[in-house]
Fold each of these.
Amino acid sequence: MTTDQSSTADLLETLVARFPGLETSAYRGQTRVVVGEPASFEVLSFLAAAGFDLLVDVTCVDYLEYRGATRRYGLVYLLASTATPRRLTVRVFVDDPEPAVRSVVGVWRSADWLEREVWDMFGIRFVGHPDLRRLMMPEQFTAHPLRKDYPLQGRGERHNFPVLTREDG
Amino acid sequence: MALELPENVVVSRLDELANWCRKNSLWPMPFATACCGIELMATGAAKHDLARFGAEVFRFSPRQCDLMIVAGRVAMKMLPVLQRIWLQMHEPKWCISMGACASTGGVFDTYAVVQGIDRFIPVDMYVPGCPPRPEQLIQAIIDLQDKIQREGTITGREFETRERQLRKRALVEAVGPLSLDAARNPVIQRELRFPRS
Ligand code: SF4
């Protein structure tokens, strides 16, 4: 992937000047910014104003029992700019209990379903989301299945249905 | 006085007549949720031509169907839909569970996939395979036609009663999830003791 290195470097400089304490790193031309949870909304809105007008994806990684990990959930925001070939990854770490982060639906409309998916699968609450319902699992479902402490075969939810016989119609 | 029938009259039972009509005009409800559905479509298409067996009228309204073909894995969110569609179909109705996923969950032993639709709705025919070839599905339909002709009744007495189904299900629950370890698998042990001829 080609990215415009010089303008990304400029942007990172402004970003770090504006929000001291941000960690940045680059790998094969892809730039990553690690943000503390309280400032995540400000950083993301700043980036949106700085030209990242497309939120490509919001997803999450559960680092439970991951070697060397200190925090549990790592949210991933993939940003892109449609006017310039720039891309940026923003990581936000949150922890149990009650992992929560401020919603960015007001900044990018595409965050709506993406955040609902992360809520459904990982149980991370997006504060300020207009309609934070489950996206994939049925509404009666109570667990968040992509968490590492949720068993692969579930806790019996898949067997929890009425049995229809021939006489039921 | 001996009753003489003209030569062009055949005597039969009403059941036989009903079965003959039913088996030759099965209207499938294609409940195609995954890759097996592609084979189901191929079965209905020109090359394999399900019309040869009188079962080509796929309808997407359960009210018009009498053969549910479940082709593909059924997610736990989908199961209530499947059950509702099954209930909406008119009697007499039959169900074919097509493929490994519909019959057992297949390779998807996860929280989201129902491990065999026969846990929750009645099934008449199972088609093994991942996916089964159209020929296999056609064979299942032919077998189902035989079954209808042999055991069908106009009042539907042949359909299993609730007690029989519940007894079968209790057996499944008593055995529990089967172990791959032959020493601990009662089914394998029974096979070893009473080998099938
Ligand atoms: S049995 Fe195989 S082909 Fe059929 S739905 Fe399952 S995975 Fe797909």
Amino acid sequence: MMKVLTANRLTDGIAVWLGANGRWLERIDHALIARHREAVDALEQAGQSAFHDNLIVDVAVIDVDEVDGEIYPIRLRERIRAKGPTFRTDLGKQAEFQQASAA
Amino acid sequence: MYRYDEFDHDFVGQRVAQYRDQVERRLSGEITEDAFKPLRLMNGVYLQLHAYMLRVAIPYGTLNSTQMRRLARIARDYDKGYGHFTTRQNIQFNWPKLSDTPAILEELAEVEMHAIQTSGNCIRNVSADHFSGAAADEVADPRPYAEILRQWSSNHPEYSFLPRKFKIAVTGAERDRAAIQVHDIGLHLKRNEAGELGFAVYVGGGQGRTPMIARKIRDFLPEADLLSYTTAIMRVYNLNGRRDNKYKARIKILVHETGEAEFARQVEAEWDKLKASELKLPDADLRAIAAYFAPPELQDRAEGWAGLAARKKDDEGFASWVRQNVTPHKHPDYGVVTISLKPIGGVPGDATDVQMEAIADLAERYSHDEIRVSHEQNLVLPHVALADLEKVYHALLEQDLATANAGLITDIIACPGLDYCALANARSIPVAQEISNRFASAQRQQEIGALKIKISGCINACGHHHVGHIGLLGVEKKGAELYQITLGGSGDENTSIGQIVGRGFEPEKVTDAVETIVDTYLGLRESAEETFIDAYRRVGPEPFKEALYGKTSRAA
Ligand code: HEM
Ligand code: SF4
């Protein structure tokens, strides 16, 4: 089992993932992966409390895999959230973080 | 065009101020998401996959150049340089920040626009024939009635908590370009034998998971009775519509479950009580609203004819654009220009800020400052002199807006689908792009003729797939995208709902399947004059099933 916690940021709606450092990150790469039931519970609790703190909305725990050391969401929907529209690679995360991932 | 009066300005201004306060309180944590969500939706703000989305109302699809320029500016300053024109004659921005939305609504209010009633269980933006007030085949301009309905329904307490959303469409011509039979109420404006104006009233059409064709419950409703009769319909619906189940809450289900005759009887009974009330529209009011929509003063420009013929001879591209994208105007020296937002391989309905500004300039110079949004996700310049067509064409060409494909196979409707939409099962836009690329050849498109492909990314049917001649519906099967094909749908005066042809196709196979269907049609049509939909109605689904699945799997 591998899961990460995702949501949209309240102020601008941008997709974010909960990082290992407890911060909400704009890209999925360094999201905290929960690998067993207790860890998933902890993610869910973290989501609840961030929601109540009005940091994020639409919280969800999603299924992921690890492919070549990178987090790979199982559902296409989540892959699109993590990258941006598939037909416009100039938009979304895939555009904003191009530099970083090329480096 | 309708201009806001003091009341409208106050109303919209107050609403923006209220909303600004609501957003501030939300951002400071004073109100919860549960309390805030319905408030933002009442102002057109949704949350999508990547960001918030703002849906701006374009009442009956009519815009002036100032408004279009403002949409362009919003796209540039608050979004990512483009907007998406939708099948509801609205525009959607895909990337606004919640914290910017009050400022955007202020910018809109300055040019008499808003996002009110673009969401929620209320009477939504009333849509209309995009050629209203211009088309040669029109009996009368239906937009004044759409405006009356807008004023009456805006913030109306009786209609703020309907069982479900409610969509009204109006047309003023026999040829239905507004798909009125798949709306909750469809109004067809016409004249009776005495020459008086009134409406054929259709009720209970809709798409979504249970597509239904509206029933005509009255053949002629005098124009003065528009509001009393609509109120009667709304009261029967408000009282009896099913609030227990979201999927059964639209009026189409009520009409279906009650039966057409009984439903009509209930409406008439209710109407009896309202007919003579203050809802009866005084003639002076009707004429006052109609005056806002008075046709522009069009000077005779007969010189256009000769020039046009000569230019068409010289320039094949121009000739085919005129043939495909220019339709007859009431005034013989003018034409109605469809600006295709469907470049080959492009995103249906998207326009950049620069394109919007170019279109605004053209409207100002050549179309009496008017622009329309069509439910087919194109834009329209309604009043262009034939003498000016060439200049308009060249200006559009520069902006990649002169694709000569209105009504052809590459003029595809597609909803945002899984690339943006939180409810989606599958992508729509990339499928549209691939089909468009496959049929890129102008010659091949001409040969195929009128053919409407419509694509939705889930059963909500925002992309009108049920009424596509070829409809594609994205579903999710075992975690992957699959496209179900329907054939024989149509959203005009001969409305029909498409039938599923068989098992679905994977993304990489769906374009081939569409091509197989088109080739099958070309092989069996009686002549080039027999359109796809006519041929389908003659032969039925069998030849297409056989071509797609082979003889053996006919049962599929
Ligand atoms: C934020 C994205 C959207 C959401 C959440 C959304 C939601 C929905 C839902 C839930 C329905 C089904 C209603 C029912 O059956 O009761 C629906 C129908 C529809 N929507 Fe959307 N939609 C979205 C975008 C769009 C867009 C972009 C368009 C125009 C291109 C559109 C136009 C329509 C139309 C024409 C229908 C079918 C007509 C009917 O109401 O029966 N929607 N939408
Ligand atoms: S049809 Fe479905 S996927 Fe497409 S816009 Fe509507 S809700 Fe979204």
